[in-house]
Structure formats: C-alpha cells, structure tokens
C-alpha cells in the first residue's frame, strides 16, 4: 500500500468521511551506514532513515497528507503556514493536489533555494517578512484567529499524527524498536511525533537524542533565542512551538536534547554524502554530528555491536544547493582536448 494513510490508517484520525490527499509519501529507506560506523568508530550499528525520498523531499509530507486531508474534510479553502522552507514546500504541493490555496509566510532571505522554488512553482501565495521564523509564526497564529484559514504548522495535531508513522516504519523495518534514536530539533514537532509513534507501536522504546544548532538552541539553553543563527536554516528557530512536548519526549525516553556546532554539522554533511552516497540538507546532518559528539564523550560506552541506533535524515540535499557548492571545490575548466581533460581528472 502506498502513502502513510493507506499503510497506517488505523493509527490515524481518518474516518470514512475523510477525503484522502496523498502523494504516496513515506516508505522511505532505512539504510545501514557501515562506512560512517567505521569512519567515526561508532560502537553500535547505525541505520539512517532517509526522508529525502518523500515526494517533496522532506519528512513534512508524512504530516501534510493528514493535515491537508483533514482540512479538506473541514471544507477549508485556505491553508497557511510559517516556514523555514520545507513545511511551505510540502503544504503548497498537497494544497495543489486538494484544490486549496496555500498561504506561506517565510523569513526574508533565510530560505534555501530549493524550498522557495517549490512553494513558488506550486503557486503558493508567499510573503517574506523582515524577521525570523518565530516572527513569521507569531503573525500566522494571529491570522488564524482572525480569518477562516487552516493552520498546517506542526501545532496542528494532524501533522504530528502523520509524522509519527516514521517511527512505525523504523520498527517495521528492524523488527524491533532501536535502542537509541537521533534527530534534529527545530520547531520540535518531529521529535514529539517520533515519541508518540514509538509509544503507540512498541512497549520497548528508544532513548531519544535530539540535536539543535548551537546558535539556535533554545531548549538546551532553557530560554528563547531572540536572534537564532546557524547555517542549517531549516532549524534556525529561537522559540519552538512544541517546546514542552519535546522536553516531555526527552524526559520520558530518558534521553537528551543537546547542541552541535555549525562546524560539526558541516563535517557530518560532507561525511554523509562522501561515505554513504546520501545527499542531505545541513539540518539533517545534525543527527550524525550529534552521534559523533556523543560517541567522543563516551555516552555509548556500554554499547556493543548488537546496539541499534537509528537516525533521521530529515531533508534532501537538493533543497540547499548553494550550501553544497559552497562546501565543494569549483571544478577545473579544461581545453576541449583529451590531454587536458585527462590531466585535470588526475587519472
Ligand atoms: C530538514 O519547514 O520548521 O523540530 O518550517 O526542515 O519538527 O521543526 C522545518 C524543520 C529538521 C526540524 N530537518 O523539525 C519548516 C520547519 C529539516 C527541517 C527540521 C526541519 P521540527
């Protein structure tokens, strides 16, 4: 069966009256990362959940299929979100499929090129505000109080319901729950969703390890960050909407939410691409960055090669091509001759 509603319907708030809006999201790869295990001396088995293969290139599609289906059931005409990019790309695509108008409020100049191009081409009404994501979300919440528009940020519980299916898929693929699960934390909806999913699907549950970017780590620092900074624009968020729920997920699972630096994120970003053939966006690399940091700290000192760690790679690398190019060597230009091309290929 294709699409997360079709596959996990009985776990979702779907009734006979709900029109299903799907782009056949979910069913993403869970890949053993042998090369990363070796490179970073991980004392455990690492499996990566590659969410970049979802229809719009991120995990947001799992939540959006449920949120948009429920919006259609409620006879909504407009959906709205504030976004660091991926939510807007997903909302805009599913809105088109459902015949809804998508309204998007983004922080000006802080959205990766791929994501902005998606929302624009899907015909969303996009407004860029001179502020950050938190400012955009505040305005969107105010709009929802005044106008008949359906909010599709992860404050909408249908988003969390859909996103929890990633945890189901991990357990289905492994045949059991992992011992640890690592993931990035931004607005904190996804860690909330994974914990809900793990709890509903298994009595044995992983310890959750959430990672925020050092310059955008309100949960770690215990206070909102006025002017969050990180190259991982997806998680450049200073006041997460699901803050309390993320703390509950962390505490109930016996886990941690901690920071990784931009430098650590970029090392992992390149290593994931160069060791495993997986092209992810910088925010996704926070997962592996955190596992490297925690391995070095001795956090996994009791782990064995039977220990299973899973990690979510939340979004596709094509979302942020500028970053990939900035982190790479410019290709040399050759004369159109065999000799010059061979020389420059260093064969
Ligand atoms: C690739 O699109 O918040 O902790 O507006 O795009 O559930 O917010 C994106 C978040 C991680 C963090 N990785 O997830 C948005 C938005 C990627 C992301 C996160 C996001 P949450």
Describe this structure in words.
This protein is of the alpha/beta class and 347 residues long. Helix content is 43%, strand content 15%. The chain has helices at residues 4-8, 34-39, 60-73, 86-98, 113-121, 133-146, 157-163, 165-174, 189-201, 218-221, 243-253, 262-276, 282-296, 321-326, 338-345, and strands spanning 30-32, 45-50, 78-82, 101-107, 125-129, 150-151, 180-184, 207-213, 256-260, 308-313. The strands form 2 sheets. Strands 1-2-10-7-8-9 form a 6-stranded mixed β-sheet, with helices on both faces. A 4-stranded parallel β-sheet has the order 5-4-3-6, sandwiched between helices. Strand 7, helix 9 (189-201) and strand 8 (207-213) form a beta-alpha-beta unit. Helix 8 packs across helix 9 (189-201). The protein is globular. The structure holds ligand AN7. Ligand AN7 binds at residues 58, 83-87, 154, 184-190, 234-235, 281, 283-284, 314-315.
Structural features:
single chain, 15% strand, alpha/beta, 347 residues, binds ligand AN7, 43% helix
Brief sketch in words of this structure:
It contains 15 helices and ten strands. The protein has helices at 4-8, 34-39, 60-73, 86-98, 113-121, 133-146, 157-163, 165-174, 189-201, 218-221, 243-253, 262-276, 282-296, 321-326, 338-345; strands at 30-32, 45-50, 78-82, 101-107, 125-129, 150-151, 180-184, 207-213, 256-260, 308-313.
